[in-house]
């Protein structure tokens, strides 16, 4: 089969839900998540460019649009599993890669195989675009958990997810974006009316990082 | 407020559903749709480039990612309304534009306002990228209606939507993409097992267009 | 086609959801809304009659049952759009009317066309029944937003919707009904256990109106 | 408590689903059902009036709007249970009545108790309005099962429900309405494209009734 | 038909939802409920055995697995209806029994009829296993209402359900299990972060029971 | 924490859905699946016993009730992933085991840890009970895919799942159960009205196996 098979598989990502098995007030599918990540990247790419960076826009957008396509093969495996051991993480990454290779060989027309292989590679490398992808991906985790806490979801997992995402965002090697996130976005986040005390959860992390 | 407000508004597009009021076996939200349109554009942009065209990739991706953001303000108005009269269409477009302008003035930080204004403009212009956006947007309509017909949705609206999208795709001023769609994709579509006779619906349109 | 087409179109209103794009703990469709509006009208019509008014019951019930049927054509357009400009509002009303006329001409059997045209007209006129329809329609907005606030929906839109509906209800030219709503219903509303402080939101509006 | 309690209980009927436990492509709640029944009654009342009958419109609409309110207390008990024995049916009706009485005594303000008692009585009596209520209620069963069969629901229950509703409609002591249903509506129904052969199921019943 | 019919009917219990008509943040079907009841019984049976009791495990598991199968015939009738009168309760139990008998006679192969009749009997008798079933069934009501209160469901019914289940659990003639529930489980429950004050609701019941 | 944590984790399995990412007319959660597997095992255990086998009922029921509890940690990983390589399968099994051990050590009270460890072990061993578990688990896959095909799901995956489950069931080392399944159940399955030709898919497998 040709590209038709690939196009219909896009629809599958509308049925893969993030954070499976957790109680949530609102579900998010991987297709919509990928779009939001692209939007965040568009903004922070612009910000970096305004501050003198050279952005490879084609690469940045292709990274964000494609970064979770492989979930079509393996689903959204629970985070604790992925981090259970370095070996498992590597093996899962390896399986994902093999399934992707296989898919490309069988479903993608020959003349597009090379370009697909390159685009579907793990995008979170050390380039500016790779770091912006990682930053944007974390930011969506930040916003997803924020929305649950705002509406009063008392499940511990979302407190953990919120604080983890926050900590990771603040540590990213993207000084301009991190500063903007810290000074502009966090100050608006803290002002919001929320059912769970998000401001306190945020200050806890900020204080911890400041001490170091 | 700053960009935080814009980022949380992205979540709203996960709750705007396409083709409201119609019975569907599967719902599609505007966020996921925008992602699929970006994927189609990535493919057809590549195809055009392989055939000698010069693609402005930054523009193409920004067009596809942003093309339905304005639905945050007006929702997914039913198609027959939009096409009820040229005046109404223009007035709705005008209102949309005004609401966008207003939103940008009030919610987007000053230094990003100009760039947001440009990106949020109607993207379906006569440039190659504008035509690829329109082609990709129609293609998603094609695939959404195809999936309903495949599963046996007997509602007339999806037959109409399928044939309309097909007709519009075949008429697009993008000869390379149209040829590929016609020769490669349609021939795979026709071979699928479907509950509604999609092959017949397709041939009907192909024959009509051939006669002219 | 005959009345069968009209009967099946009723089902479409079970798929048009109110306040599209907003996060809600509970969705409400237009069919169920129309029924609740009829129930409120039954109560307040009775109250007005007990206080000496002459109610045209046939007209009152037909107004409430039919008042949102036209959403079958245009969907539930977001409120801010409807109020964006007087021109747009008039044009949308005009389009709605034209689509209704057209529907009646094409789908309703000739002998029923006149009676349908009369029943499907905009019902919120200055008659007692027209005012009771408007009052009942606002009351459902009041109860929908109240239920969200009660369960802790922190989205600003429901605070605005609640206070707007409350303000409009208290200003309606229906002194007997307004007094009953204010003295009996609001006092029960204020006593309820709610996640968001509804009592405070209510007093804020009552105080504002008292000052004038 | 006062009428506020009654008004919030209306919302409960949006969460009582018809035909519980059956696989359906589309769910229907009791609130939306009551509205559709009111619409059917509006049409057939008009038809009867055009043919010389005297319709008490106030009574007709109040019957249709209120006819399933008691499900707030007992839910939508499965049909086979209701018909398991005459004794059980009577006892359930009796319990329903007692719960309604109790509700009215405790929740409805004294001055409205008598009028509520009258309105909430079983409406399917021998008056023209009582028969129109029964006809309209059956018609919704007819349309609900028709929609499932149209989309290919293979569960036997919907074939049974369709044929049962059809048989009951044709036997109703409302000659004008029955004739219209038979000549106009059924002929349109039979012409529709359906996944299950609805035309055959319809002819089977028509033939059986003709033989007698 | 043979056992195939019985096997497909199991699927129906995935569509019968508990506490119909109530607003809930999360729905629970009867199939999943039966599984959770089996899990609770496994634990408390083990606890009783460790404390010297003799458990008939085969009987215990069959009781828990089968205890709500009859809802396939009657649905989840609202609790207040079941308790409206002793007569009605008996009659409903009688109808349920008759429908079960009938189902076994018509759908279960002859050689299995006797064994099915025994297994599908009301299991809440005075045996240790019967009491463990009742305890486990109440415990699920306890956990279902706890989860709603934890997330901030303000509907009175869940406060009532929580306190009722708690009271009934503490009164069960199973001293070892009750003591464990009171000392171990309740103390963990009270420590949880909850939107509604569950600790206060719990102490209220504990104090009432202590006074007696 | 004590057993309270384990009891609340049961609720998580109501949110893990089987066959994630596939289009289905009906979703099935792991809790409900576990219950259905227990029901099948009850039947086939009885059948085996009637034919002279000695069934350890306590073990059989505990195996079926617990067999998918570990999905609480890893979710329902897509089948193709699990079978991608023997190494990965083993490593995933290993991780699952480690997470279970960890959970037991941290959440289960000391005196119950040993018994939990034994019960939560992989149950599909060579004992009669282990084979009955595997047979019942496959049977649910058979019924889940059958239900999709019956309603017209055209996705290839369900044809594959149906035929795979059928083939595996027929090959199980449980001659009495297999014979009953083949002679009694399959003959009823084949007689059903289905949208996809299930009889043909069944005969195809039966013929293949007969040839060997």
What does this structure look like?
- The structure is a homohexamer of 212-residue chains.
- With 212 residues, chain A is mainly alpha-helical.
- The first copy, chain A, has one domain (4-211): Orthogonal Bundle (Hypothetical protein af1432), CATH 1.10.3210.
- The first copy, chain A, is built from eleven helices and no strands.
- The first copy, chain A, has helices at 3-12, 30-50, 57-66, 71-74, 79-82, 86-107, 110-119, 128-150, 156-171, 175-191, 198-211.
- The interface between D and E is medium-sized, with 29 and 29 residues.
- Chains A, B, C, D, E, F: This is HD domain-containing protein.
- Chains A, B, C, D, E, F: It comes from Ureibacillus endophyticus.
Count of individual beta strands of chain A: 0
Q: What's the domain count of chain A?
A: 1
Task: Output the number of helix runs of chain A.
Answer: 11
How far do the termini of chain A sit from each other? Answer: 56 Å
Beta fraction of chain A: under 5%
| Unreliable stretches covering 5 or more consecutive residues of chain A | none
Rg calc of chain A: 18 Å
Which oligomeric form is depicted? Answer: homohexamer
- Whole-number mean pLDDT of chain A: 92
CATH third-level topology of chain A? Hypothetical protein af1432
CATH class of chain A: Mainly Alpha
The global form of chain A is globular
Secondary-structure content class of chain A? mainly alpha
Largest interface: A-B, 44 and 44 residues
Task: Kindly report the name of the CATH homologous superfamily of chain A.
Answer: Hypothetical protein af1432
């Amino acid at each position: 089969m040709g590209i038709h098979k690939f196009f219909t598989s896009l629809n599958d990502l509308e049925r893969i839900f993030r954070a499976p098995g957790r109680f949530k007030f609102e579900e998010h599918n991987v297709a919509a998540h990928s779009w939001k990540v692209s939007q965040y990247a568009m903004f922070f790419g612009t910000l970096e460019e305004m501050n003198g960076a050279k952005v490879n826009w084609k690469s940045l957008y292709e990274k964000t649009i494609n970064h979770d396509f492989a979930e079509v093969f393996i689903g959204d495996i629970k985070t604790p599993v992925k981090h259970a051991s370095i070996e498992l993480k590597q093996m899962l990454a390896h399986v994902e890669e093999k399934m992707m290779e296989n898919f490309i060989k069988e479903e993608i027309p020959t003349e597009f195989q090379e370009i697909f292989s390159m685009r579907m590679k793990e995008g979170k490398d050390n380039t500016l675009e790779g770091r912006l992808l990682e930053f944007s991906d974390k930011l969506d985790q930040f916003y997803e958990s924020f929305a649950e806490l705002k509406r009063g979801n008392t499940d511990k997992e979302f407190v953990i997810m919120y604080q983890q995402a926050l900590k990771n965002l603040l540590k990213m090697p993207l000084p301009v974006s991190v500063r903007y996130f810290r000074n502009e976005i966090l100050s608006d986040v803290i002002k919001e009316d929320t059912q769970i005390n998000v401001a306190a959860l945020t200050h806890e992390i900020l204080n911890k990082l400041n001490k170091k």
